Amino acid sequence: MYFRGPAVGLTFCTLYLAFYFTNKYVLSILKFTFPTLFQGWQTLVGGVLLHICWKLGWVEINCSSR
């Protein structure tokens, strides 16, 4: 994955931290009893956001990046 510009990287880090702390809040403070469901939803949203960024040309995804 190749990010273009520092703004995209900063946006990614900000969203990552927001999702991380939301996850901790819901699972610890609110005592959510179905963590797999909540984390699966977060993964789906992350995948959709990654796909949108790829379509907009903000992120380059290569299958043969090894």
TrEMBL record:
It comes from the Eukaryota. Keywords: Membrane, Transmembrane, Transmembrane helix. The chain crosses the membrane at residues 6-22. This is Transmembrane protein 241.
